[in-house]
Amino acid sequence: MTTTVAAPATAAPVATPKVRRGWTQHGMVFVAPFLLIYVAFLVWPTLLGFQMSLSSVNIAGGNNKFVGFDNYVEAFGDPRMWRSLWNTVVFTVLSTIPLVFLGLVFALLVHNLRFVQWLWRLSFFGPFLLPSAVVSILWLQMIYPPDYGLINGTLGTDVLWLGDPSVAMWSMVLTTVWWTVGFNFLLYLAALQSIPQHLYEAAAIDGASAWDKLRSITLPLLGRTTALIVVLQLVASLKVFDQIYLMTGGGPQDSTRPIIEYAYDVGFTGYRTGYASAVSYILFALIVIVSLAQLRLFRKREEVAS
Amino acid sequence: MHGPPDITRRHLLGGSLALLGAAATGCAIPVGLGSSQTRVQYWHFLGASDGIIMNQMVQAFAEQTPDIFVEENVLAWGEPYYTKIAMAGSGGRSPDLATFHLARLAGIGAGKILDPINVELLEEAGLKAADFSPPIWERAHLDGVLYAIPFDAHPMVLYYNTDLCGRAGLLGPDGKLLPTKGVDELIAQLTKAKEVMGGKPPLAFDALGLGTVGPWRVWYALYAQSGGTLLSDDGTKVTIDDAKALEALRLMQRLGKEGLCDWRTDYGASVAKFTNGEAAFLWNGDWETTGLKERRTPFSMTRFPAVLGTGAAQADCHSFVLPHQRDRDPEVERATYRFIAYLVKNSADWAVAGHVPAYLPALEQPEYLALQPQSEYRSVITEVALDPQVWYTGSASRLWIEFGEAFSPVIGGTRTPEDGLAAAKAALTRLMAAPNPFPDEER
């Protein structure tokens, strides 16, 4: 059915005017200011950070000696680095799946509701507007406390939501899903609204059921949005820091410490900026690998689709 | 705010209020600075109830010394504070004066981040070595150079609810808690209190939670009582005595298991429970005194109980340091020393906040001796268990947090004392193996 969706008319090839390519062209002039900022605030610090990761520099800028790959060797032999890297991966997997799935489910629900839609939209998107500090205090002080917290109080359970190493990571995922699902929800909602209504009308005439429409029209047409959401979500989850730092500080027993917090700990508490840079570059490498893998994956899928 | 490592809601609010207050009264911007005044920039982390006392002392100094204006800046306690000191000191444009935990001296790169104390100027201001408690004075040195001026010691103490203890028959005829010695007497005391409280745990301390260091404080006090040490004097070898370390951990586990201490309380909850009369005893640093008095809790306090030998108690010391400046204005420098001398000599006022003065003459002053219950535990000053002098120790340091993490589940009963000790030793070995960010040759 996707083939029928493709726009039938492709523009006839128009003779394009000759464009001269080169550094002197005015296109470059327009791009230059941005490029300058990009180099000054992204490329240059990235290189500088890498240089730091090869030194023993401390937070005061002293003890600045070239140590080669010593920091990396130390990091690869550091069980806490591995633990925090593993925590980051676990958090990413555990959070991305519900965040994408629930975003879609909520969007479908709201899209098909015909009354007080604004209220539902606000309800799902609302938490996303809260700053991480507010979210953390809310859950830390009102929802998770073992004695009087909302969950234990309501369910009559006796769980140490943030104090039990086997539960704490799940608690962080729960908080994160509640807090950030609104963004994916919004993207899905926008995508749903851009699906032409006449497709559903045509399907209805052919006698398609609601399930058929969902499976054959809605989900395939949301494919690109899903790809985008998954990429954004994976990168966002790999970079988790705020709520974990504020709610558990990485504990109990290192069970929630993400790698960014580990870099923060060794750099700012331990004053070892060089080593912290090395830890950061390990995360950087992980994010690059994940992003490249996804790009390849989705490109292949698009090629298959076309 | 110096005791609790975790930022509890109360401390966060207190700190923000203090900051707001500082901003509102124009402390951050020297609007009060007259043309003939010398300005001394002063950073400190005293944002809890002892922050109020510090603010009063700064104001009293201003009244007495109109030619000096002290610009007080209250910063958040803990890791962020030491990050700021390190960065300000390395840039050479730091405040003229800052408070500091003595145990962190070895870790900050003194000499690069901190300037040495000018002993001549200090004497000119009226302070000399003989005025200070010798072990603490010794601590303020690094390689024989004085880097800090000690202000107080803040040990672990025992707070007790006089109502509950009275009903349990634990008070003597003078209304003071009958002293206990050894494990059995401690357990008997707690058990009696538990009966009076209808079976609820009578003892509260910071046992669990975000960045908790309570289990470290308790363990280090108990372990030091039995004569245990962490590291060799030169800091190159772990010297933990397994038998002694386990004895302390087993006792901590027993307290949790037998319902004698509430192992599910974090810092804030433990203080709140004691404040509200839901716990007969609180093991904590001495800095909650002012807050408890304000809330009219019927309490008194005494030395941390001698359980496993001596009466040693885990402690750290507040002190004053001069963060590194590229060019120090001699006039400001002189004013800074005058201000320090004022604070130190008026240590009896500071003791109101709960801390034991490091300035020996203050310990004999009638004002101090009249302070109740602050003067009750002053004898601990000769038995404080201080951190080993290596770069990863001191308030809110990695050592405290890692040991807190290792021992917290032991109290809760989810980790054996053996596993807890193994985790702590592994952490210590790791910290020891990591290179010092401020090596000696940098000094």
UniProtKB/TrEMBL annotation, chain A:
PROSITE patterns: ABC_TM1. Signal peptide: none annotated. The keyword Ion transport does not apply. InterPro entries: MetI-like, MetI-like_sf, UgpAE/MalFG_permease. It comes from the Bacteria. It is a multi-pass membrane protein. Residues 85-294 form the ABC transmembrane type-1 domain. Keywords: Cell membrane, Membrane, Transmembrane, Transmembrane helix, Transport. CDD domains: TM_PBP2 (cd06261). It is found in: Cell membrane. GO terms for cellular component: plasma membrane. SUPFAM superfamilies: MetI-like (SSF161098). GO terms for biological process: transmembrane transport. The chain crosses the membrane at residues 28-47, 89-110, 122-144, 167-190, 221-241, 278-298. Belongs to the binding-protein-dependent transport system permease family. This is N-Acetyl-D-glucosamine ABC transport system, permease protein 1. It comes from Nonomuraea gerenzanensis. The lineage of its organism: Bacteria, Bacillati, Actinomycetota, Actinomycetes, Streptosporangiales.
UniProtKB/TrEMBL annotation, chain B:
It comes from the Bacteria. SUPFAM superfamilies: Periplasmic binding protein-like II. The keyword Transport applies. The keyword Nucleus does not apply. Keywords: Sugar transport, Transport. This is Putative sugar transporter sugar binding protein. It comes from Nonomuraea gerenzanensis.
